[in-house]
Amino acid sequence: xxxxxxxxxxxxxxxxxxxxxxxxxxxxxxxxxxxxxxxxxxxxxxxxxxxxxxxxxxxxxxxxxxxxxxxxxxxxxxxxxxxxxxxxxxxxxxxxxxxxxxxxxxxxxxxxxxxxxxxxxxxxxxxxxxxxxxxxxxxxxxxxxxxxxxxxxxxxx
Length: 157
What we know:
Helix content is 60%, strand content 5%.
């Protein structure tokens, strides 16, 4: 029997990583359904939520910058920005570094929306059971980051 602290051989690793991908997909879909069930933030699509979260956490960004961070096409991100702009949640401001690529900035209304969303997510995340430890969550994050590196070369445009 193999020691559980030893790296897995490639075939076993592939099987176990497939299990992780299956769980991530189910978790993502169920989590989004749960989060979308509240009145105060109804109507915020997953894409618009992602744009608002980025701008809330990192400040003004261009559409191409957001696309790179989220690994989504520039065109898709632009549609999400347009949706958020139509609702008054973001605004375009001049970009001193590039005249043709405006910076997108979150508005006060957008801050209120994303703050409500993040508070709901935090309340839901507090309900996770299993007596998880910081070490376990660090290991989970490490595994997911390694999985993500596998797709660093994938062009989203």
